[in-house]
Amino acid sequence: MTVPLFTTVAAAAAAWFVLGPAAALAFVALALLEIAMAADSSVPMAGIAGRLHSPARRLFLSLGIVAGVLAMRLLLPPAAVAVGDATDPASSVQEAVFAPGSFSAHLAEVRPALAAFGAAFIWLVFAEYLFNTDRASRRSWLGRLEARLAAVARPRVWSLVTAATGVAVTAVLVGVDRAWSPGALLPVVLGGAAGIVAYLGSKRVAAWALDGVGSDTAIGVGRGAWRIHAYASTVVFERGLVVFMLFEILDGVYSLSGSGTLGADGLGALEQAAVAVAAIGVGAVFLARLTSRLDEAAGLKRLRYLKAGAAYVLGVLAVLLWASLLVPIPGVVVAWFGSVVIGSALASSLPWRAWWRRVARGSARSRSSSGLAP
Q1: What would the pLDDT profile of 232-250 be if each residue is shown by its tens digit?
Q2: Could you give the CA distance from residue 108 to residue 102 in angstroms, rounded to a whole number?
Q3: How far apart are CA 229 and CA 50, in angstroms?
Q4: CA-to-CA distance for 326 and 63, rounded, in angstroms?
Q5: 313-345 per-position pLDDT tens digit
Q6: SS3 category, 182
Q7: Angle in degrees, CA 299, 301, 303, rounded to 5
Q8: Which residues contact 79 (CB under 8 A, 6 or more apart)?
Q9: Which of 79, 151, 188, 325 is placed for a possible disulfide with 116 were both Cys, Cβ 3.0 to 4.6 Å?
Q10: Which residues 6+ apart lie within 8 Å of 89 measured at CB?
Q11: CB of 328 within 8 A of CB of 147?
């Protein structure tokens, strides 16, 4: 963590000297928030990294995470608003920086389609674990029901059917509850369908990238390098979309427009944007380093249920995105559901029984050596 910590301290000092104390305090507050988000996201990210071959994994852990997080957090909202309003992308970015109130209103208009898109896409990613599409050998975290779902025939069909069902049910409920989301029926249907198509397209690119690459020793040379980079890009998009949906769509706050709420009201629009971008960059670097460290330590293999917890974070996020189209999601749920799921998976992965047996044996030996044993 030396590089991320040094980067944070150096950026805070630069903000203090260049922009003043208000900018430095706003940067520190935002950076701490981003670091907390990174701690939650590192476990699911390590699960995704574990599915990559070595060269693509190195690219993903070094540059891919940082680039993906920055691109999705900063560029996808203006792009979505530009597509929804049929405006120039440059004008959308300008509005996000200089007129955050107007931009937030425009983002809210396209939010139903974005939430439906993200829910369908992320559910399909979660369904890879739920229905065990890779047919990997594993222990079920949640008991017999999870084991039965992991053994269903035609798991990919089940994945698509459940995703389509989620889109259809949400669309029907949105159509009934027009008071909460008027005019959202068509965007929800189109967004959900687009999410399914985008997932299938991403997996098709990944399959093409891995087809004919050869053994791991041949990866990274010639044609294979381009293919493995294409594969890594699909993973970067997948994880970047998850982070964007969690912290931008579900909580409803766009990063470039949020620094003013953390004590930087006296700064200009460009200065606030610079503070926000720097904080997101620090969080992305922390996320990359934490994920790399977890991957190097083989944490997901040593803690057997941690991968399951990472998968269920995605499943819960997809359900929350669908539910957010019908009812407001409390901020405390958005902030803590990932920590609760990952914490539960971690706690259930620890060898409590082995530790208790060691303590019991040590206590018995102590009593025996002291002459207290019967």
Answers
A1: 677 777 767 776 787 667 6
A2: 10
A3: 16
A4: 37
A5: 889 989 999 998 888 888 778 777 777 887 787
A6: coil
A7: 65
A8: 89, 92
A9: 188
A10: 78, 79, 82
A11: no
